Amino acid sequence: MSHNFADASARQRAKLLLDDGSFRELLGPFDRLTSPWLERQGIVPQFDDGVVIAKGRIDGQSAVVAAIEGGFQGGSLGEVAGAKIAGALELALEDNQKGIPTAAVLVLETGGVRLQEANLGLAAIAEIQSAIVALRAHQPVIGIITGPVGCFGGMSIAAGLCSYLIMTREGRLGLNGPLVIEQEAGIGEYNAADRPFIWSLSGGEQRLAGGLVDACTGESTGSVASALRYYLKKGLPKVQRSDAFDRFLPALLELDNSQQLDAAGARAILKGVQA
């Protein structure tokens, strides 16, 4: 599989990750489940609300894939899109409770909450986070972050709750996006147009070096799919990353925010996190 994973649509990504012939979409575009809020604000809705939910198999094991379409509203989540992901995770949890092992894969290309749906989006993301925590007690929940949007906002917190995180080199992960930081703190603090600087701090290689993700792969579907299958076979981690806060807090206490942090400084602060 040499297809560039980052160039694929959300629907293509879900199909590429699942075993051949096992892809079955739930609440697809023909179900016409759209956001009730976007048209009122002059925005053309999308019939899947920018999220593809697929049930299938990965190496023969039951799995659900939720893939966010970064090309629709920057991958932002509102009431419907968030409910689709939370519902899929909850159905996977029910499968496990019935003795049917079902893992979950989240393909995260998102800026976080959809501003046009503000509080509804926040509530939906809270439901997603709760569902991740419940499901990961039974089966791995694996997040995949790629380009071009990356993963920011409330969904970056959801990413941190995943059992394992896989990033491509072109992916980005952070709580606030570059434009938000520049708007709030000024261009002197964070220049959103300085791509090398941004990727040096929030790109896949940097996040791997800091212990915030488990794998940094190439952009090909083969690389991403191989890493996904590796972590599915590995099973549940002994300690979930979000439960290992005692490894991260000392690093935060070392942080001197009187000067702008660069990539080398960030790696130095997080040097002991992987241990």
Automatic annotation (TrEMBL):
- A single Gene Ontology molecular function, please? transferase activity
What InterPro entries does the entry give? AcCoA_carboxyl_beta, ClpP/crotonase-like_dom_sf, COA_CT_N, Malonate_beta
Residues covered by the CoA carboxyltransferase N-terminal domain? 1-186
Q: Which domain of life is it from?
A: Bacteria
List GO BP terms, alphabetically. carbohydrate metabolic process; fatty acid biosynthetic process; malonyl-CoA biosynthetic process
Question: Where are the annotated coiled coils located?
Answer: none
One family name in Pfam for this protein: Carboxyl_trans
Q: Reply yes or no: does the keyword Transferase apply.
A: yes
Q: Which UniProt keywords apply?
A: Transferase
Record's SUPFAM superfamilies?
ClpP/crotonase
PANTHER family per the record?
A: ACETYL-COENZYME A CARBOXYLASE CARBOXYL TRANSFERASE SUBUNIT BETA, CHLOROPLASTIC (PTHR42995), MALONATE DECARBOXYLASE BETA SUBUNIT (PTHR42995:SF1)
Q: What is this protein called?
A: Malonate decarboxylase subunit beta
- Species: Gallaecimonas xiamenensis 3-C-1
